[in-house]
Amino acid sequence: MYQAKNISYSIDRMKILNQVSVAVFPGKFTAIVGPNGAGKSTLLKALCRDIIPNEGEITINNQAISTYTSKELALTRAVLPQKTHLSLAFTAEEVVMLGRTPHSTSNQQNKAIAHEVMREADVYHLKARVYQTLSGGEQQRVNLARVLAQLHDQQEHPTYLLLDEPTSSLDIAQQHGLLDIVRQRCVERGYGVAAVVHDLNLAAQYADYFLFMKNGEEVGQGPSQLMLRKEMIEHTFSYPVELIYGENSDIPMIYTKGSTPFENTSLLNETINSR
Amino acid sequence: MQVATLPAMKAKSNLTTNTAILGSLVALLVCTMFISLRVGALGISVGQIVNILLHNLGLDVADVSSRDSAVLLSIRLPRLVLGVAVGGALGISGAALQGLFRNPLVEPGIIGISNGAALMAVVVLVFGPTFAAFLTPDLTTWLLPVAAFSGSLAATYIAYQFSKGAHQTDVTILILAGVAITALCAALMGIVIFHSNETALRSFTFWSMGDLSGASWDKIGFAIWLIVLPAVALIGQCQSLNAIALGESEARHLGVEVEKIKHRIILLSALAVGASVAMAGAIGFIGLVVPHILRMAFGPDHKLILPASAIGGAILLTVADMIARTIVAPTELPIGIITALMGTPFFIWMLASARKKRIQI
Questions:
Q1: Rounded to the nearest 10 degrees, what angle do helices B302-326 and B15-38 cross at?
Q2: Per the count of CB atoms within 10 A, which of B39, B57, B153, B218 is most buried?
Q3: Which of A48, A51, A133 sits opposite B253 (nearest CB)?
Q4: Does the CB of A107 have a partner CB in chain B at under 8 Å?
Q5: Distance from CA of B256 to the nearest CA of A (A)
């Protein structure tokens, strides 16, 4: 289990995270949602060990994250950012091969693994293309293949995949394509997944657990069925929503109407008063 | 899009291709070295050169002229060795720093290495003679390189201290601090030059354009290791530098200890380039352009580019030195003029063709 316990983080006395806890279970998909500036990405950065929280602790498989060496950590969790800017003109294949950096397997094995995951991410045909000449969606799939290559080898302990708004620059087909693969890994290989997602409907279709965040604090967390409620979403995002259920589906469609929240003064006042 | 289907831009991770490229570059370097040893006021044939070298290794070879031997062993060879070492150090440091800073405009001078050395060099050249009476002749010879070396390390250290944050070193601030320190050194140099006489000014001008003359075994004996060992150690950072191309945090996520790598590369480059500048003056251009030319030709993989930049830098400097000391014989041109004159047109041609083929650099 990948766990953050009561972590707080501030920059210049401004609290970005305030006593946030979250648990990411192997084989489960946890979505982190909330409005802009809620501290979602900061939480993910803390989970990656990009930043060290001022308070609280983070453990992976019951071991404090600070005790991991860089290499051990890289063998335990991979991170897929929103966008990756490459400073050099590597080919797609070379980028995927970089996912093998923490491993000491032979070049030949690495290449075989790279090709395998590139086929899964549907980028094998791009392998000789220079990364910078690819479209945004293709680049993101190449990076997905890179993190899959990083987590490819079976480890004795559970492994985790952290994603920071992985689908924000993708079209609808690509969004589902990427999350399908992530979901599949989650189920078949038991990866624990934590993803910051902006699109609630997208998150609703893939996540087992939800963490709702607002103003650096947890609003609520738990299994999707319990968390995807009108009040929870409206309170978190300060915007009116309707939940629509399909005939044979227990996953709601979250419907928002195109008006600015400032016009809905009654709801806005209500949410302000509730804080 | 029909971009990047050029064979040269395809994946070059293939080990045998890399070995072949490096092998050819080494062969080219060896040829250049022999030609460089051959040419000069006194022509020595390749056969003679081989004989002299073998003789010196203790083999019994007939027919070795002692005059040729003296010219070769105590004049041309130390100069050649220094040139190869300095060219190699500039090339590989340039490649490593461009990779580390994720910026194609970086060259070793940018973090203050060159101007820190230049400031100390001009101080020694201008004020040195005043104090020469108090120093032994031995100390006078060593004063310039030692001062230049400490100047480059000090400038880099100050720039580096600025960029060091609580958790990590900010490379943008390092570059900006380097630029600021370079400018400050230039201003201080101006003040010193204002107080200088003609002779000192002339020596400094030549020094600042690079100068391999006057290389002798006792002069380069120690410095050569200070140049070569850090340069060789830089090759070991290739895998990490490849990962850093993705971004610093991405590299960290892949298990690369980015902070350690930064410290190591900055220290090793400052040592190698600092010692190079101390021994041979400020030779521009090699550290900037050699890595670019090689990347355009063979792709960006540091496993290849780091050693290839060392060899390429050595080739370029050897050829430049050969031209510098023969073209206006019996005097010689400052070598920096030749490196820039030779490299710039070639570099511009490569840039133009890369643009035409729409290759990303």
A1: 10
A2: B153
A3: A48
A4: yes
A5: 7
The pLDDT confidence band at residue B355, using thresholds 50, 70 and 90, is: confident
B211 to chain A, any CB pair closer than 8 A? The answer is no
Q: What's the ipTM?
A: 0.87
Chain A residues in contact with B100 by the CB 8 A cut-off are none
Per-residue pLDDT averaged across A19-45, rounded?
A: 92
List of domains in chain A: 2-228 (3.40.50.300), 229-275 (no CATH)
- Among chain B residues, the shortest Cα distance to A94 is held by B11
Set of chain B residues whose Cβ sits within 8 Å of the Cβ of A113: none
When comparing pLDDT for B84 and B11, which is higher? Answer: B84
Lowest-pLDDT choice from A124-128, A151-155, A197-201:
A151-155
Assess contact for A208 and A217: CB atoms under 8 A. no
| Rg of the Cα atoms in chain B | 21
B256: contact with A, CB 8 A cutoff: yes
Q: Which amino acid appears at position B56 of this protein?
A: N
Instruction: Give chain B's domains with CATH numbers.
Output: 7-356 (1.10.3470.10)
pLDDT digits (tens, 9 = 90+) for B167-222: 677 878 888 888 899 899 989 988 988 888 888 888 888 888 888 887 788 888 88
Of chain B, the end-to-end C-alpha distance in Å amounts to 17
Distances (CA, A) of A169 to A33, A64, A82, B353: 17, 34, 8, 32
Residues B72, B77, B79, B85: what is their CA dihedral angle, to the nearest 10 degrees?
Answer: 170
User: Which of A72, A87, A102 is opposite residue B254, by nearest beta carbon?
Assistant: A102
Query: In A, residues 58-87, which contact B (CB 8 Å cutoff)?
Result: 70-75, 77-79, 81, 84-87
Inter-residue long-range contacts of B73-78, CB under 8 Å, 24+ positions, other chains counted: B74/B216, B74/B217, B76/B36, B76/B37, B76/B40, B77/B37, B78/B215, B78/B216, B78/B217, B78/B219, B78/B220
Alpha carbon B69 to its chain's center: 28
> How far is the C-alpha of B324 from the C-alpha of B318, rounded, in Å?
10
Q: Chain A residue with minimal CA distance to B254?
A: A74
A88–B300 CB contact, under 8 Å:
yes
- A84 and B250 within 8 Å at the Cβ level: the answer is yes
Nearest residue, CB atoms, A101 vs list B3, B4, B243: B243
A19 Rama sector, left if φ>0, alpha if ψ -120 to 50, beta otherwise: left
Residue B304 has pLDDT above 70, yes or no: yes
Mean pLDDT, residues B77-81 taken together: 91
Interval B303-331 mean pLDDT: 91
Contacts of B299 (CB under 8 A, 6+ apart): A89, A90, A91, B8, B9, B10, B11, B12
In this structure, of B48-57, B163-172, B309-318, the range with the lowest mean pLDDT score is: B163-172
**Amino acid occupying residue B278:** A
Which band of pLDDT confidence, cut at 50, 70 and 90, is reported for residue A274?
Answer: low
Residue A48 and residue B257: Cβ atoms within 8 Å?
Answer: no
Distance CA B151, CA B323 (A): 30
Q: What is the distance between the alpha carbons of residues B154 and B119, in angstroms, rounded to a whole number? A: 11
